[in-house]
Here is the input.
Amino acid sequence: MNILAIDQARNGAWSVFNYETKQLIRYGTWGFDSKKYTFSKAVLNIEEIINKVLKKYDISAVFIEDIQMRVNVQSFKKLAQLQGVLVNLFEKNDYLYDYIAPTKWQNYCKARGRSAKEIKAKSNQVITSTKKATKILSIQFVRDKFNIHTHNDNLADACCIGYYVVNNINIEQKEKI
Here is the structure.
């Protein structure tokens, strides 16, 4: 059974894992610049991308990072709208799906709770990024675990979400009638 993990946003990412073997099969990103795409057009394109991934990789269950209210209400509203479109896609096509709290996968992948100084000491690299510590740590995790060398924290987060799921979530498939 293949599962799909999604870090949803205007610039987001996805990863596909084999649930039984816990192996990362494939991953990808998308990005829709606000100068070229309205948010509504970006959402339509994201839905199309996810729909193609669902079909191409014979996905049985989908896991999306849950959204959290922070300082920017407008960003929260847009993420909620995108999440609604994706949930509608999953419901229309009878996919199993669930939300993964960021703290769950971050704690599991050790992408939370360390200072930039500790990260620098562990990785032996100079950190010149303005990225939050959790983003730096998720990038480091996918480099170490999957040998994926990227600066894209959305891709790293999608891989971490999928890795968390295959190692912690018990999926019971619906029987087909």
In short: The first helix runs from residue 39 to 56. Residues 96 and 172 are 9 Å apart (CA to CA).
